[in-house]
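To whoever is covering the structure queue this week,

Two jobs came back overnight. Logging them here so there's a record in the thread.

Job A:
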Amino acid sequence: MNRQYQVKVNGELELSVSNDDIKSLDTIKTSDLKYHLLHDGKSYSAEITDNNFNEKKYKVKINNNTYNINIYNDLDQLIKDLGFEIGNSKKVDRITAPMPGLILEISVEIGDAVKENDPLLILEAMKMENVISSPREGIIKSISVKKGDAVDKNQLLIEFE
């Protein structure tokens, strides 16, 4: 199977690279993170100077020029489209109502420090009580609802600092 990868260089240039493209490179590994490449008759010296596998970020030095590179495969794109990116919950700054309902209880106040999975409030919807928990650690910046409020889907409930 010829897998495709999306490569972003310096946050601007986007390329699509396949396994066949990678296999066709004339490359020799010269040490742990250093390589020698031949492409179109030109010689290149490449070194991976920094990498973050979880975020798929790499710094590569080619002939004394440093490039920031992000590499994504089909699974990464699917995960992103579904909203399940690695560390995605850590970036959540706002909690919105997942469905229309009634606020039965608010368990936090502005300025409270919460941990991931701490209960924030209870939303009654379709005769069921739904506990809305914190997706991350943080400080409560604002609470946009009060006990007894009816809320619409996607209405802002709580913001984090």
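Job B:
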Amino acid sequence: MEDKASPRGGIVIPWFALGFVAIAGLNSLAVLPHAVVRQVIDIDTVLLAMAMAGLGLTTHVSALRKAGIKPLALAAVLFVWLVCGGFAINAGITSLLN
């Protein structure tokens, strides 16, 4: 059976993820001035807010009703898991460093 994810049968690479890793590496080198980093973070915040607003504006209540309670319950469980997991990781690292 042919792989529908890649027409040539190769590996599909999310290029934005490689860009993210490259920018994170550049930021880790601390070669950019603090003012530039601060400005880029502010621009990033605005762009992320615009993307989230775009997603929210295209979501219709009827689509949520049609999906049913199971996906919403899963989202709630994942939200709690991520919040609790993030708290546990932060608490663990803080106790290790202190």
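Note for Job B: The CA atoms of residues 68 and 79 lie 18 Å apart.

Please reply-all if you pick these up so we don't duplicate work.
Q.
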